[in-house]
Amino acid sequence: RRALGSLGKSRAKFISAEETTGVTFNDFAGQEYIKRELQEIVRILKNDEEFQNKGIYCPKGVLLHGPPGTGKTLLAKAIAGEAGVPFFAANGTDFVEMFVGVAASRVKDLFASARSFAPSIIFIDEIDAIGSKRGGPDIGGGGAEREQGLLQILTEMDGFKVSTSQVLVIGATNRLDILDPALLRKGRFDKIIRVGLPSKDGRFAILKVHARNKFFRSEEEKEVLLQEIAEFTEDFTGAELQNILNEAGILTARKDLDYIGRDELLEALKRQKGTFETGQEDSTDIPEDLKLRLAYREASVAVLACYFPDPYRPFTETDIKSIHSQPNMCYAEISGRVFSKKLDYLNAIVRACAPRVIEEEMFGIDNMCWISAKATLEASRLAEFLILQTGMTAFGKAYYRNQSDLVPNLAAKLEALREEYMRFAVEKCASVLREYHSAVETITDILLEKEEIKAEEIWDIFKRSPRIPQPVVNP
Ligand code: ADP
Question: What domain of life (predicted)?
Fold first, then answer.
């Protein structure tokens, strides 16, 4: 085996190579099932005899998809670290240059380097930059060049035999929907794993990982504080959680304290929220016209929450004292088993449409702002989850098993199905908001006057407000 140092720098500046990443599965927390799935691949890469003799099939490509900052790169490095194999990384955008022939030759370089150190891992971040659907609109130009690069990747992946020189290709993207279906076919990226936003328990576990090298007054206090932060950080990514702890560490040092305390953590949390929401924390700072939008948003969320009550997450109160890109409505955490049915998911998608639908209805499509951003994203994400992960829709299960064989043109189908669900959800949501328009107005008025409203009063208004009958909307 050649020493990794011999990988000439000048030859391939765009490749970053590590002999050993030093990252393990212990560094990735939450979503434990992902690690279990990847463990098997690691054993095969390590040439475990148990697998060798049985001729067990190792995927050539693993595609990790999910929002930025959820740990996809970390997972890829952990696979390399656990298997003890070298790691060759490139970014999809590095392949896309206007010079003819560069993309294909860079792909060749990358695979040649990895192969001479096999078993090894190739990681292509933002693979959508090079692997988006062919024949689509050529945004940003360089289409023909990109296509050459993509074809080269396909050729390389088809070319190697699994048994002799095992190179595992890991791709990462947050745009599964625009990937060329050819990439997802058997023998290419035929293991697709979604890396989503962490749950509350997941967030706690991630915080614990990043608190390993930080000082707290005691183990008990650390647990309590991190639980609290996990509670407050719905929709945060692993990278954002890591930032909170780093920031808290810096604040602690600045104040010359020995231990991270509650104040520092909450301060860091506030800052982190600020960086991605440009939020304003003090209601006196919120301009009147934004307050009106905010009140309508919260009222629409409240009405939908009454119309389709979530059995596992009763709402408790809302306010217009602060402004974020996700609704202010608070919910009680109910412990115990969640057993969501398809209808629960559908209702959740309809509920999530409320901020976007009301804003468009009240202020007009050209006059929208960002206060419905997170909810809209959530709706689309839920639809994708329902389709791909639950097996409750037309091709959910097939997708997870041996996806591309059973489901040709997967990305196009996913998009079409998601559009169908979203269209229904938006229509249904608009119909509910029209039917309960009077309740929406009443709740909005109360919010503008008192800045907050409790669940009890919301329910009362919902039940006694006059309704305007609407045509039936069916899925
Ligand atoms: P992505 O590739 O999905 O954009 P990264 O792997 O670059 O995300 O994540 C950035 C950093 O955030 C990681 O290096 C890690 O420190 C932290 N992080 C993200 N997700 C997790 C997780 N699930 N567990 C532990 N740390 C995480």
Answer: Eukaryota
Distance CA 149, CA 107 (A): 7
Crossing angle (nearest 10°) for helices 72-83 and 32-45:
40
Find, among 343, 346, 309, the residue nearest to 329 by Cα.
309
Closest CA to 381 of 408, 356, 352, 342: 352
Residue 333, pLDDT score? 63
Report yes or no for ipTM above 0.95. yes
Q: Measuring CA to CA, which residue among 422, 407, 416 is closest to residue 375? A: 422
Please check the confidence at residue 29 and state whether its pLDDT lies above 90: yes
Run of H or E residues at 64: strand 61-65
- Check if 242 has its Cβ closer than 6 Å to any atom of ligand 1: yes
**What gap in Å lies between CA 474 and CA 276, rounded to an integer?**
37
pLDDT tens-digit series, residues 184-207: 888 888 889 999 999 999 999 999
Q: Is 214 exposed, middle or buried (0-12, 13-18, 19+ CB in 10 A)?
A: middle
* Band (225; pLDDT cuts 50, 70, 90): very high
Is the full-model pTM beyond 0.80? no
Tokens matching residue 143: 């289409």
Q: Is residue 174 predicted with pLDDT exceeding 80?
A: yes
DSSP-assigned beta bridge partners for residue 453:
318
Q: What is the mean pLDDT of the chain?
A: 84
Is 49 annotated as catalytic? no
Closest by alpha carbon to 209, among 230, 181, 232? 230
Pick from 233, 242, 247 the residue to mutate for probing ligand 1's pocket: most ligand atoms within 8 Å of its CB. Answer: 242
CA of 27 to the centre of ligand 1 (A): 9
Pairing outcome for strands 315-319 and 330-331? antiparallel
What 3-state class would DSSP assign to 393?
coil
DSSP state of 69: T
Residue-level pLDDT at 332: 79
> Cα–Cα distance between 468 and 16 in angstroms, integer?
62
Range 90-98 average pLDDT: 78
The answer to whether 214 and 220 are in contact (CB under 8 A) is no
| Ligand 1 atom closest to residue 66's alpha carbon, by position in its atom list | 3
Cβ of 209 below 6 Å from ligand 1: yes
CA angle 70, 75, 81 (to 5 degrees): 150
Q: Which of 82, 264, 298, 378 is catalytic?
A: 298
Residue 362: enclosing H or E segment and its boundaries?
A: helix 354-363
pLDDT interval class at 280 (50, 70, 90): very low
